[in-house]
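HUMAN: Would you supply a protein with fold tokens?

ASSISTANT:
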Amino acid sequence: MGNIYRRAGQEFQYVFWQYYISQAVKAGENEGHPMHAVNDWVTDEPFLDFMRTLTGRQDVRTSDSYASWYSPGHFLTKHADNHPTHDRVAAWVLSMTPDWDENWGGHLAFYDAAGNIDGAFKPAFNTLNIFLIPVDHAVQMVAPYAKKPRTSFLGWLLR
């Protein structure tokens, strides 16, 4: 953790637990895992049609899916979700964290051009955040005194 924190002071860095749902489904790993239903949902046409309408981007072809678990001390530093091989249109985050205290951190924060927080959302149960890419954002560090993990499903809408 010391090395991760040192790197975070100088460059993009993150630490949290993550399960690559779409990759596991594609590889036939953990067949029947309950989280795999999320991948079925986000790659089905009703979800994709809703996202095309919501984002105004008719070039959305599919979505991928992940699950994340942020424990105390976990974070994701500022980045814009650009990727060299994945043609990302937008990101979606379905927060699954009930009864989160705002003092515990873990907010999905968005930044303006000067690096100021332009807006932030605390984890909340069954809430969906969607944003076009690229946009500078981060997940603020979960406080060491947080009483539970910050959990979510997330993914990117892809061309």
Q: What stands out?
A: Residues 45-55 form the longest helix (11 residues). The mean pLDDT is 97.
